[in-house]
């Protein structure tokens, strides 16, 4: 018999797979509020430009546009659970739901409609009720998640050459950590239940390395930062050796 408790909802998805309707670790331990707010603003700016280009929409829809909406869903859920969420006007749960309105086959008009709701949530003007909890494995699909993770490598390396303490410098690493939470929750690539601990360990290693990387960048310590950058990538390589 499965017992359901108010503070932790468990949803069974398949044999050996489950999704916690909250982050596998406390969001505030891996993502400072300011970093989340900064990245929300960045992705809103990215989508604002992308959705203006009607000619390029179909080309960019399965790539950057899908990645941005997926990332915004993760950022929204991170805000919904964050202990400091009251310090920002962004409505995290509403932002998540708005981002999830976008589907991989959405038309340009559908994408624009979702984006309008994203902007309302960012401004704290969304209406209606939005549940605080949401399964982390239902926020972003694995492919756009991995593409988003990979796209940050170059930006992080540029920062590590000469960290200057600018506001946005650690955000790429924090974004890695947030995506790591979704990665840990999404175990559909694990075909053998006995391999679940391996998946969780690789995800934990990635989250930890990403968090330490953000801290090193914030401290302008490029040597320590490079150590944790390499550790994060090594955790990905080790995972890919087991899970294809």
TrEMBL record:
The keyword Electron transport does not apply. This is Cytochrome C. The keyword Signal applies. Residues 1-23 form the signal peptide. GO terms for biological process: electron transport chain. SUPFAM superfamilies: Cytochromes (SSF47175). Keywords: Signal. One of its GO terms (molecular function) is electron transfer activity. It comes from Thalassoglobus polymorphus.
């Amino acid at each position: 018999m499965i017992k359901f408790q108010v503070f932790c909802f468990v949803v069974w998805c398949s044999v050996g797979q489950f999704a916690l309707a909250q982050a596998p670790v406390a969001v505030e331990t891996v993502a400072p509020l300011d970093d989340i707010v900064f990245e929300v603003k960045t992705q809103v700016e990215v989508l604002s430009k992308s959705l203006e280009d009607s000619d390029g929409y179909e080309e960019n829809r399965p790539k950057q546009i899908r990645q941005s909406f997926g990332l915004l869903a993760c950022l929204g859920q991170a805000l919904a659970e964050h202990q400091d969420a009251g310090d920002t006007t962004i409505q995290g749960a509403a932002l998540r739901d708005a981002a999830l309105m976008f589907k991989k086959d959405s038309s340009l008009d559908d994408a624009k409609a979702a984006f309008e709701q994203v902007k309302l949530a960012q401004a704290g003007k969304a209406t209606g009720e939005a549940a605080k909890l949401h399964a982390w494995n239902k926020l972003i699909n694995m492919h756009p998640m991995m593409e988003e993770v990979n796209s940050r490598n170059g930006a992080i390396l540029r920062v590590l050459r000469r960290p200057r303490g600018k506001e946005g410098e650690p955000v790429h690493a924090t974004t890695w950590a947030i995506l790591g939470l979704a990665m840990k929750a999404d175990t559909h690539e694990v075909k053998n239940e006995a391999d679940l601990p391996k998946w969780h360990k690789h995800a934990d290693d990635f989250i930890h390395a990403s968090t330490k990387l953000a801290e090193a960048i914030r401290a302008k310590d490029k040597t320590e930062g490079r150590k944790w950058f390499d550790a994060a990538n090594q955790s990905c390589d080790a995972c890919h050796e087991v899970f294809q």
